[in-house]
Amino acid sequence: MSTQTAQPPGPRATVRPYRLTVRQFLKAVEAGVFPHDVRLELLGGIPVRKMTTYPPHNSTVYRLASALRALVPPEWIIFEEKPIVAGRRWRPMPDISIVRGPIDRLIHDDPRAEGVAIVIEVSDSTYADDRGLKWRRYAASRLASYWIVDLKAGHVEAHSDPTGRGDSARYRATSNFKKGESVPVIIGGVEVGRVAVNDFMP
C-alpha cells in the first residue's frame, strides 16, 4: 500500500460581481429587467431589495417627516422613501431626506448628495446596514448630516462632520438624543429649529 501526502487545494477562483452604475441600473429598470412591484436600492452597484416595513417604522417616518415640514425653509423639500444619488454606483432610498428644491428641478433627475441637507434612516432590523455600509457611503458623499432613528434603543444618532473616502470614510461627530430631548435641524450650517424625540419616537 502506498501513501501520498495530501496536497493543499489550488487557488480559489475569484468571483467578481458586475456592478452597475446608476445610469445602467435605471435603464434596466425602464427595460423591465426587475419586477415592477419590487422596490430596489442600488448599493455599491448591487441592486438590493428594500425591506418590508412595519407599523412602528411607518408611523415614525410619517410623524418625523411632518415635524420637519413645519421647520424647513420653503426652498427645501421633504422626501419620504425616495431615492437619492450618493455616488456613481449608489442610489439608496433613505426613509427621509431634506433636499434642495424647487420640485421642478427634480422632474427628470434624482437629488444628488450635494443638494441634500439631511438624510435619515429609521432603523429596527436594518441597524447594521444603516450604521455600517450606509454610514460610510453617506460620509464619503459628504452628506453633512445623517440621522439614525434607532427604534430598538429608543434614541436618535445624529452624525455630522464627514471625512475620508471609500471604506475609510466616516463621520467625526456623533450626538445621541433620547426621549425628553430635541434634535437640532441644521441646514446649510444654520439651525432652523429642533424636533422633539417624543413627537415621533414610539
TrEMBL record:
Name of one Pfam family that matches: Uma2
Residue stretches making up the Putative restriction endonuclease domain: 30-182
InterPro entries for the chain: Nuclease_put_TT1808 (IPR012296), Restrct_endonuc-II-like (IPR011335), Uma2 (IPR008538)
Protein's name in the database: Putative restriction endonuclease domain-containing protein
